[in-house]
User: Fold this.
Amino acid sequence: MIWVTLALVTLLVVIAFYAVICRSVIAAIVAVGVFSFVVSAIFVALRAPDVAMTQAVVGAGLTTAFFVIALDKTEAADDQESR
Amino acid sequence: MLAPTILTGAIVLTGCAFYGLITHRHMIRLVICLNILDSAVLLVIVLLGYEPDAAAPIVRQADLQYVLGLPHALSLTAIVISACTTALMLGYAVRVHRLRGTVYVDRLTRWRG
Amino acid sequence: MRRTLALLISGSIVALGVTTLMLTGTLSDAIRPVDYTLRTVRDTGAINAVTAILFDYRALDTLGEATVIFAASSVLAFLAPRSSASMLSVRLSMLILYGIAFLLPFIMVFGFGTIVFGHVSPGGGFTGGVMLSSSVVIFAVVYSVGGQQSYVLPILVKKYVENAAMFVFVSLGFIGLFSGGAYLANALTGIPLGEPGSLLSGGLIPLLNIATGFKVGMGLALIIISLFAE
Assistant:
């Protein structure tokens, strides 16, 4: 069990690092969606099924939709520096 | 052993989020970094109620040891509120883009007539 | 320059945190939670302790949270002018249209089930409400043909449902007040708690769950539709 949690935390840190340093915004958004799934898996390991369900639905579903919509609305930015 | 692992992970996530908050200028990326910070805090809050060899707080038998349920309730509230604040921040970002034509924070200081 | 500063600051945050962790020792040894979960069942009749805390002990906080969602949806609706509505500029293929048409009823049924069974299994009003709102949003994204918006319910009906759910929540709280207890009191008011573990148990908790589910679902659907129309 501890090895599973250790692997999940390592994956979490790697995904967060990628979401922070990657160049394109849409890649960061998708990385945050995957990040939320890994966080909800850790919540299951911590015996918190309610929080895990809510985090999976809100973080991976709804917030990703928010980000994609906002990116679509702001895509016609002034210049294509780092889109 | 599980608690120090997750605490270290949360600390590293906080560092990542602060790095992103300082270096990025794109508003949506700033909101992404705030989301990562939020998840790190939630991990610590849920960890506060954890106990090894305890079951999830849904009482099916009377003679079991259960995990503390109060941090779960608090973090459930925090997750939904954070979705609302994310939507609000993104709405402001879209509005700023509509009005000023840019989503980069450092270009907002320049005057555009 | 900026990157060096950022590396310095975040590195010092990590170093400080890890040092504190090492000095104070592990957290799991320090904390021994008192086992009040069994007392929760006796007090409220709901076997899910998290739902019992959210809708019985701290129900006033839940009311405040519903108010926060209401405020956020109001601000977003204020930001978005209704006249210049435009949907996403994406054309979806036939596969996605029919796949979503197959999946959508299951999503809705799962959301309703999560709301109704919130006090006997993981879930509750918030989770189920978010599922309902996501089904509404999927419908609005997939079936908006040629810039024309199409919704499961019209926006005005969503607003009425949200306000009605809020009203039901607030007025359920007065039951406790009129029968001599505190606002939103549950077991003290003499409401039969039922057999713990069955569907009709927990006094007011299932009703508050349903009200919160509709409130959160419609509120988040309004938020995301305001973001669309922005």
